[in-house]
Amino acid sequence: MRDIPTTYDQSKESKIYKLWEESGFFNPDNLSGKPYTIIMPPSNANGQVHVGHALGFTLQDIMIRFERMRGRKTLWLPGTDHAGFETQVVFEKKLEKEGRSRFQMTREEFYKEVWDFVQDYKQQTEDGIRRLGASTDWSRNMFTLDPRIIQIVYETFEQMYRDGLIYRGNRICNWCVKHQTGLADLETEHEERTDPLYYIKYGPLTLATVRPETKFGDTALAVNPKDTRYKKYIGQELEAEGLLGKFKIKVIADELVDKDFGTGVVKVTPAHDAADFEIWQKHSAKGGSVPGGKDEIPGPKQVIDKRGKMDLPNTKYHGLKVAEARKVVVEDLQKLGLLEKIDETYKHNVSLCYKCKNVLEPLIIPQWYVAMTKKFKIRNSKFEISLRDLVVNAVKNKKVKINPIKFEKVLMHWMKNIRDWPISRQIWWGIPIPVWYKDNELKISEASPGEGWVQDPDTFDTWFSSGQWPYATLMALDNTPSNSPLKGGEQRDSPPNIGGARGGINFQTFYPTQMMETGWDILFFWVARMIMFGLYKTGQVPFENVYLHGLVRDKDRQKMSKSKGNVIDPLGVIDIYGNDALRMALVVGNLPGNDLPLSEDKVRGYRNFANKIWNAARFVMQNTEGMDATAQLAPAHKVILKNLDKVTNGTTKLLDKQDLAHAAENLYHYFWHTFADKIIEESKAQLANPKTKASTQLMLKTVLETCLKLLHPFVPFVTEAAWQINHKNLLLVEKWPIKLN
Ligand SMILES: [Zn+2]
C-alpha cells in the first residue's frame, strides 16, 4: 500500500498556490471558452487584510473556480486602491501620534510620505490576497493611481464637462473642520441630539434657533405664508436691536417654514444652513446666482470660517470657536434682554463627519459637481436621458441583476432622491483635478497649459475614479492611444458621448463583465456609480450581476473592532487552521445581504472537514491501486453513482443561482455523512470480497474524484493536494462534472 500521510499538511498551501500560479491558468490568455470576468473590488492600500476581505475573496474565488472548471475563459482582475480621503485620514492619525500635522508640511512632502506608506500596504495587501488563495490574474494587477487609469479618469471628466454634466457650484457643502474638506451627503452620519433651543427677540417678533451665533449672518426672517399670526409682517422690513447695534431685516414667506417649530418665525442664514441657502435661492433673482439688485433678500453673509471660527473682524466675537461664540452670544443676548427663554429639551438631528464624528459646519465652498438629473444627449441619437435614469433603467430592465433582490428597491429609492454629487475634495492624497485657471479662463488639461496658469488645488472624490474601475482597468491594459488630446488642453473636434468606447483586446473580450461581488454597504458609493459611469462611457453596463455580501461579525453578532478585542485576523487563522477551514466557515450559512457571525470554533470545525477529505482520499487511493478500470458496476454501486449525479446537478444549479452557502453545505453533508460515514464504511467488506472488489474500487474512485471536483471551488487546497497524489494535471482546470439532463 502507498504511504500517504495520515493528516492533511496545510503548511503546503503556499506551495500549492505557487503551482497554480506558475501553471499560467490564472491568466485567461491560457484558457479558452466564453469569457467570464470578475473585476476584484480594489482593496484600500492603507491597512492589514481583514476578515471582510477574506469573505469577498472567498466568494469571488468560488465563482471564478467554478466557471474556470466549466470551461470558461475566466478573468479575475486584482487591484488596490489609493483610497483618497480614507487613506489621508489613516495617515493623518499616524502623523498625530508622531506629534506632526499635514499643515506643517508642504503638499509635496505629504504626498511623498503617503505614497511610500501606501506602497508598503499595497505589497502587504497583495501578499494577503495570495495567502487567501485567490486565483486571480496577477499579470493584470492594477492600482488606482496607475497613470493609464488616471488618463482615463481625466478623459471622462473632460467628456462629462463638455456634455454639461460636470459643473463648478458655489453652494453650501458639508464641511469638516477637522479634516478641512467638503464631504458628500453619503459621507455624513446623522445623530439625534438634545440641544438648547434659544428664543430670541427680533424687534416685534421672537424666533427660535439652536444656532444663535450665526445670527450675524442673517439676511431675512421667514414665516409660513399660511400662518395668519404673521401675515401683516410679510414683505415688511423690521428694525431690531442686535448685539452689534440696531439693524434692519426683511420678513419673507416660504412654505419650507414649519408653523409648529418654535414660534413659527425663523431666521434665514444662507451662508451657514443648507435649508436657509435653499430659501435664499428661491427668493433671489435667478436662483441666487445674482445676489443683490432685484433680489428679495440679500445674498449669503459668511460669519464662520473654514476653521470653525467666527469671522467678524473688529468685534469681540472674532476668532472665537463656534461653541465658545454660542456661549458668549447667549450671555450678551441675556444682558440686553433679547433672550426670551431657553428650551433645554429640544431634540434634533445633527450631521457628523463619518470619520471623526465631529459636527459638520455647513459652509459655502466652491466644489465640482456631477449633475445627476440633468438630461444630456446621447451621441448619434436624439434621445436624451439623465445619468440617474441611465442607472434606473438598467436595473429596471434587468440589465444589471442584484442579489439579493431587495437591494434593487433600496437602490431605486436612493436614486429617486439623489442630488448632484460633489466630486472635489480639499485633500492632498488623490488624483488632482485637471483644471487650470488664468484670469477668468478655465482649461482642462493634464499638465500646465502654459505660463500663468494655476491648477485647481482640489483632488477627486476617490469614488469618481473607482466608479470607473471596470472599464478603466480593461482600457488601461489595452493602453490604446486616447482620442482625447488632454495634454495641452486642446479641445476635441466633436464631443464623444455614450458608446465612445475604445476597442482594445482586453476591453473587447472582457467587457461587460459578468459579476460584481462586494459589500452591500457600498451599494450607493460604488455600485450605482459604476453602473452610471459604465453606461455613460461605454454604452454598456459594467457587469451583468451584482452579489452583495454582508458584514462579518463575531459569534455574538457584535461588530468586530480592535477596541472590543473580538477581531479575527484571517491570516492568523489560516496559519492555525488552514485556508480551506476559513473559507468553509465564511461561506456556510452566509446568505447574500446578511451579516455572518464567525467564531474560531466554526473555523476549527471545518479544519476537521479538511482532514476528513484528506483521509477519505487516502483510503480510496490506497484501496484502488492497480484497479481494473473496465470493471462492471454492481447494481448497488450504480445506485450510488445515480445519487451522486443528483449531488452534482444540485451543486451546479445552486452555483448557477449564486447560492454558494447551500452548495457548500450540501456538499459538506454528502461528503461527510454519506460518502465517508456510509459508502466508505460499507465498502470495507466489499473490498475484502474478490467478487465485489473491482466494482467497489471503480465506484469509490468515481465518487471521490467527482467530490474533489465539486468541492474544489470551496476548499481548493486540500482537494488539489489530494488530487495531486494520483494525478499529474491540476484539479484547478479539471472539467466540472456535468450531469444535467
Ligand atoms: Zn472629519
From TrEMBL:
EC number: 6.1.1.9
Name recorded for this polypeptide: Valine--tRNA ligase
One Pfam match: tRNA-synt_1
An annotated Gene Ontology molecular function: aminoacyl-tRNA deacylase activity
UniProt-listed InterPro entries: aa-tRNA-synth_Ia, Anticodon_Ia_Val, M/V/L/I-tRNA-synth_anticd-bd, Rossmann-like_a/b/a_fold, tRNAsynth_Ia_anticodon-bd, Val/Leu/Ile-tRNA-synth_edit, Valyl-tRNA_ligase
Reactions that this protein is recorded to catalyse: tRNA(Val) + L-valine + ATP = L-valyl-tRNA(Val) + AMP + diphosphate
Uppermost EC category: ligase
Keyword NAD: no
CDD domains: Anticodon_Ia_Val
Gene3D superfamilies in the record: HUPs (3.40.50.620), Isoleucyl-tRNA Synthetase, Domain 1 (1.10.730.10), Valyl/Leucyl/Isoleucyl-tRNA synthetase, editing domain (3.90.740.10)
Gene Ontology biological process terms from the UniProt entry: valyl-tRNA aminoacylation
Every Methionyl/Valyl/Leucyl/Isoleucyl-tRNA synthetase anticodon-binding domain range: 638-738
Keyword set includes Iron: no
